[in-house]
Amino acid sequence: MTSQVVQIEAKNLVWVGHRDPETGTWIGVCKALNLNAVGDTWAELQECANEAMALLFADLLENSELSDFLYRNGWRLRGPLPQPGVKPLFDVPADWNSNARFDELVGAGR
What we know:
Low-confidence stretches: none
Shape: elongated
Largest sheet: 4 strands, mixed
């Protein structure tokens, strides 16, 4: 199967991360996408977050809801959508705040 990079211009897409001092586990929340992610390391957290975003955007694309979702959030595509049968690879820039407190994460998801 061929693939195509789908670039999304998303302003104010921020992940907030916190490392649990007892377990060492990293926890991340993205309020704009209503997603969360976990990882044993900072790199694993970011990988999990990227996978979560890719699954969300792939689902939106499959259900023909991606364009409306981007519009509602003030975001846009930077290029064409892939044709049916072409696997989308999403390129979505996000900012990270790794110094969040746990209570900020709980509040971020509300």
